[in-house]
Amino acid sequence: MDKLTSEQSSVEISEFITSLRNGIWLLGIPSWLFGITDRSMATLADGYLSAMDFMQLFTASFIFLSWLFLKPYQVEINTYPTDISLVPHEINPDSAQNRMLELRKLHMISQEYILPFSHLCQIYHLLNLKHLETVHSFSLSNLRVVSVTHFQPTAIGGIIKFQTMLNSDFNTLRIWRQPLVEVILALYNPYTVELNIPVYGNKRIVVMFNVEPISDKEHRLYIDIYSNLDWPKPLLQLLLHFASCLTLFEDLPYLRKLADRNIDRLFNVSMVSTHETAWLFKRFVELYGSAWKSSQSIKMLESKDTVTETA
Ligand SMILES: [Fe+2]
What we know:
By secondary structure, the chain is of the alpha+beta class. The chain has two domains: 2-69; 95-296, Naphthalene 1,2-dioxygenase Alpha Subunit, Chain A, domain 1 (Alpha-Beta Complex). The chain has eight helices and seven strands. It has helices at 2-45, 51-69, 95-103, 119-127, 131-134, 233-260, 263-266, 279-310, and strands spanning 107-115, 143-153, 158-166, 180-189, 192-200, 203-215, 218-227. The protein has a seven-stranded antiparallel beta sheet with strand order 1-7-6-5-4-3-2, sandwiched between helices. A hairpin with a 2-residue loop joins strand 6 (203-215) and strand 7. 22% of the residues are buried. Mean pLDDT is 81; it is low at 75-83. Fe (ii) ion binds next to helix 6.
């Protein structure tokens, strides 16, 4: 995570310096034009062109031309590499880190939160497709999960593809996307989930969620969003920050409700819904449910020992 963060920071610093240099260069053009026009009008006002006037105009024009040739070298700011596949192509133990490194040139925003819930509530919420319809009915404007079209389990996770539909003709998301699109959700490992959303053409928005348990009742959530949308980057960043905050705000009451429930019930294989929208969560429980239960049993035994020793 540290290596990734420092690489992202260096890319952001380099982009900022390039933007600054371009901004100064662009500002210089009207300034020079204004200076030359002003000098020319002042010279022509008296109808006489002296050698000194001529030298001043010649020097200003020469420096202006030189300024035009000093255009900063264009580094990709709003152009995007075409060799990066925004569709995940492999899911293996190391691929979450590799995936984020691969996507780093398309990085838009990062957010980090400390939330007062078990990280298991967050994972359950991320893998439960139905919550897109119910919890995010406002931000996603009553989007419907139509069907699950593909499910592929892996050794440590799985990938699911599902079709979503915009119900209404007046849905604001129609500005961004087609009415029926196939969304990808991938579980890379117990802590990393990717949500991959097509926008239009080959343009996509990829959201990587990483959870880091702090305690049984607290976790850190990292949200990284990537996109190859060729919108002005600051505008896109602003929109994505807003959308991310809004969806988290919608999620909070739902996460609180999950935290109040008995987590044992959530992670009991026999009690997990067999509906296709819960396939990926079922895969998570099959892989990690028993490990979590054993760790809980050990903690209970340890706490009993502590109570006995104190007594
Ligand atoms: Fe959510």
